Amino acid sequence: MFRFKKHILLIVVTAMLLAACGGKAPASEKASCAPNCQYTDMTFCYPQLGAESDWRTANTASFKETAGERGVRLIFSDAQQKQENQISALRSCIQQEVDVIGLPPVVEDGWEAVLTEAKNAGIPVIIVDRSVSASKDLYASHIGSDMKLEGERAAAEFNKQFPNGAKVLELSGTTGSGAAVGRAEGFRAKLNAKIEIIDSQTGNFTRAEALPVMQAFLQKYKPGVDFQGIFIHNDDMGIGAIEALKAAGVKPGDLFIVSVDGTRGGFQAMVDGWFQADVECNPLLGPQVYEMALKLMNGQTIEREVLTDETVYYPANAAELLPTRKY
Ligand code: GZL
Hints:
Blueprint: H1 2-21, H2 29-33, E1 43-48, H3 54-70, E2 73-78, H4 83-95, E3 100-103, H5 112-120, E4 125-128, E5 141-144, H6 147-161, E6 166-172, H7 178-190, E7 195-202, H8 207-220, E8 229-232, H9 235-247, E9 256-261, H10 264-271, E10 277-280, H11 286-297, E11 305-307, E12 312-313, H12 318-321
Parallel strand pairs: 1-2, 1-3, 3-4, 4-5, 5-11, 6-7, 6-8, 8-9, 9-10
Antiparallel strand pairs: 10-12
The structure holds beta-D-galactofuranose.
Residues 52-53, 55-56, 129-130, 144-145, 179, 205, 234, 236, 260-261, 281 line the site of beta-D-galactofuranose.
């Protein structure tokens, strides 16, 4: 946006000078498209954090498919859940002078320097999905789920199930990520005081890492005796945990399990009786983010904070809804 105004001023002054000498102002793709930029004028940078879960796969597909449909030139990369890889991908996009950056931050902290570089280069940044702790003046907007509310919704399910108290385990997401921080905070804020979280470990949002964590839990705690429920921060870790539970002889319904995301895998786990609720977290953000990016290119203002509207899914209609799920 800042670059566009500078270019427009430069073009006007150049045009005035050249007009005085009778020449044509040099064409400038950026300035000439505002305020009528189209998606086909857009180069959009999306340094995706990884491919750790079905949710992430669906989020990536949303950005790639929508870019293809609308003619956006998408610069995509996969950081394999490493912040340093996201930061170097961002710097590469800044050097390529992209029009807009969408950043799905793997963790909340450590973005000030690279966001300042993007701002100084006149490239607006939209924070996508998880949040950042950096100052709001370093990015144009944030769009994503209310992670704290997701945690509160999970707690409400445990409060309904265990009005007289219980002991529960927590399998949390990536340490330091806005999703794990928010879900844990909301869960604790809303949980009935009689329900005790006896242990919490991270499974980094992946099936592979959740399996050994659940196995270790089962070495320490007797299911149904030492704990009656598990709050799991995403469906992929839930599927990993189910593998360990099955191997330990636990049956569907023996434990009260609430997960997050609402992926097909989570719906199947509800159909099979393993999950008693699945808190929705919508990954299909591509269309909205590109709309926001086009407005920025055209010098229009956008909402500083856009929270996706979500719900909670239950086993009662999981089988009926499963075939309709987009992710
Ligand atoms: C939440 C998103 C989380 C999902 C996980 O918005 O960042 O990351 O809940 C994904 O499935 O890995």
